[in-house]
Amino acid sequence: MSNKITDVIILAAGKSSRFSKTANKLNQKIGNKSIIDISIEKFIKKKLIRDVYVAIGKKSIKIGASNRKIINQVKGSSSRMNSVLNVLRLLNAQESPPDNVIIHDAARPIVYEKDLKKLFSYIPKIKTGIAFGYPLTNALKYIGRSGIIEKNLSRKNLYMTFTPQLLNFSKIIKSYEYLRKNKITVDDDLEALHLNSYKVRIMKSSPFNVKLTYKSDFDNLINGIQKL
């Protein structure tokens, strides 16, 4: 089966407000590379990828000079959903829109090559979407006021989901346009597909796919990068 045209969307337009009121978390460095450059370099120069698009916001990010020459920068939004839709519409207006898109949060620089290789193996045959995930292993509690446990929740069949996610282009843009038309807001591409009755699979991947949200996450990122 022939390979399909696949583009990558990297989301880097968030405010980083939970990390810092002034600094962009994507400019933080691990070793001599910034978080944004580490995330970009997971995809550039991969033979199965045509182009890489990075959605950027008002809080400036410092992309390395060599990476800037290769990627396409697109105006993003403080809303993840709007950032995704901005890039999808740009791709749809091209003479040759992609068959697939891979959507990735720039704040997740720990992507294991073996997981990425497995994800790429689905490029020729994907019909809807497939995403990284890992089963929940901790006990789950529903907490009410004053930190009091109100319910014990079953973790059976529950998964954490991560990016990158490989998605059929026509189905994901159709899903987002439907949500926009009906004024429905989502924070997750898989939810967008699910709300449009598309079936998406979870591919078990590494549980160390940490998202940099708070400053306390930084040590976990460093430890994860060192294991790559």
What does this molecule look like?
27% of the residues lie in helices and 25% in strands. It has 7 helices and 11 strands. Strand 4 (52-56), helix 2 and strand 5 form a beta-alpha-beta unit. The relative contact order is 0.18.
Summarize the structure.
The chain has helices at residues 35-40, 65-68, 80-92, 113-120, 169-181, 189-195, 218-227, and strands spanning 6-12, 29-30, 33-34, 52-56, 72-75, 100-105, 129-135, 140-143, 149-153, 159-168, 201-204. It has 228 residues and is of the alpha/beta class. The two termini are 31 Å apart.
Structure characteristics:
single chain, 228 residues, alpha/beta, seven-stranded mixed sheet, 7 helices, 11 strands
Helix content: 25-40%
Number of helices: 7
Largest sheet: 7 strands, mixed
- Anisotropy-based shape: globular
Question: How large is the share of residues in beta strands?
Answer: 15-25%
Structural class category: alpha/beta
- In N-to-C order, the SSE pattern is EEEHEHEHEHEEEEHHEH
Radius of gyration: 18 Å
Q: How many beta-strand segments?
A: 11
Q: Distance between the terminal alpha carbons, to the nearest Å?
A: 31 Å
Report strand order across the widest sheet: 5-4-1-6-10-7-11
Q: Segments where pLDDT lies below 50 for 5+ residues?
A: none
Average of the residue pLDDT scores: 88
List the helices and strands and how they pair.
Blueprint: E1 6-12, E2 29-30, E3 33-34, H1 35-40, E4 52-56, H2 65-68, E5 72-75, H3 80-92, E6 100-105, H4 113-120, E7 129-135, E8 140-143, E9 149-153, E10 159-168, H5 169-181, H6 189-195, E11 201-204, H7 218-227
